[in-house]
């Protein structure tokens, strides 16, 4: 942590398809000596782009329920704003599949930049919640990863079906097929 100037981290380790251990290290705010500021396994961290697979999982659950379709023009679902027609959308409509494939406070830790300096205001604020706005714990992310792995292996259908997990985890070409 000192090498990277990080005041605190929380880690969850998966072993044998379960959380083997979870632990916090350091503090939530750089320079703090207050024991109440210690990072624990329950400390929330802003996980940035890790929000994307969480959002994709929620989207795929709605697809499995029949609420959404992966290959339907998203404008069918949008109410107050629509994707404007342009030279690209006339060739290929924007779909959930294309969007998903393109996306390569008290208990919360403060965000930090290099040299352990806290970001003014304590953390980043993103106007778009789905791609970067998630706050969570490593244990919650580990439980999600375990559920996705179990679905992919056919051990559980609680989160997603095996077929849907397979689609989610299969890399897609960056270029549309001709």
UniProtKB/TrEMBL annotation:
One of its GO terms (molecular function) is hydrolase activity. Gene3D superfamilies: DD-peptidase/beta-lactamase superfamily. This is Class A beta-lactamase-related serine hydrolase. InterPro entries: Beta-lactam-related, Beta-lactam/transpept-like, Diverse_Enzym_Activities. Residues 1-102 form the Beta-lactamase-related domain. Keywords: Hydrolase. It comes from the Bacteria. PANTHER family: BETA-LACTAMASE FAMILY PROTEIN (AFU_ORTHOLOGUE AFUA_5G07500), BETA-LACTAMASE-RELATED. Transmembrane segments: none annotated.
């Amino acid at each position: 942590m000192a090498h990277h100037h990080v005041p605190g981290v929380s880690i969850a380790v998966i072993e044998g398809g379960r959380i083997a251990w979870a632990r916090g290290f350091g503090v939530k705010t750089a320079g703090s000596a207050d024991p109440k500021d210690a990072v624990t396994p329950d400390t929330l961290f802003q996980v940035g782009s890790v929000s994307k697979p969480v959002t994709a999982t929620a989207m795929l659950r709605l697809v499995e329920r029949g609420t959404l379709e992966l290959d339907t023009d998203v404008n069918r679902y949008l109410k107050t704003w629509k994707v404007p027609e342009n030279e690209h959308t006339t060739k290929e409509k924007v779909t959930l599949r294309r969007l998903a494939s393109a996306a390569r406070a008290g208990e919360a830790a403060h965000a930090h930049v290099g040299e352990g300096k806290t970001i003014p205001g304590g953390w980043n604020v993103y106007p778009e919640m789905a791609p970067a706005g998630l706050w969570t714990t490593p244990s919650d992310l580990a439980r999600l990863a375990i559920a996705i792995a179990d679905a992919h292996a056919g051990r559980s259908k609680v989160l997603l079906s095996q077929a849907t997990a397979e689609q989610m985890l299969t890399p897609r070409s960056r270029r549309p097929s001709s």
